[in-house]
Amino acid sequence: MESGEPQLQLYEIVNLQHGSLTCTVRCVAGTVRLGETVDLRPATQPDRPIAQSLTVSAIEYAGDIPMTFVDLGRTAEVKVTGKLDVAAIRALGDVTAADLRLVVR
């Protein structure tokens, strides 16, 4: 992936349902902001997104503190909404091993 693309690395899926994914993330590049459009991609195959055109709909820092952004090095719980293939995401198993990223478009 290009280093210039803001991106969040997934550490844990907190909640996954049709239309919504909530996960614990760490920002590994740039700044990701509330309302931005992101793709869910494996870091090793950035040209093969698992889900596209998701919207960052919530960001919370530890202690349930609502935020409007996540910047480099910070961890947060992030919710994205949009069309998700729940079965395909669950089939990946361990998200840390899969090295999934939410990458700003």
Automatic annotation (TrEMBL):
Superkingdom assignment: Bacteria
Protein name per its UniProtKB record: Uncharacterized protein
Species of provenance: Paractinoplanes pyxinae
Lineage: Bacteria, Bacillati, Actinomycetota, Actinomycetes, Micromonosporales
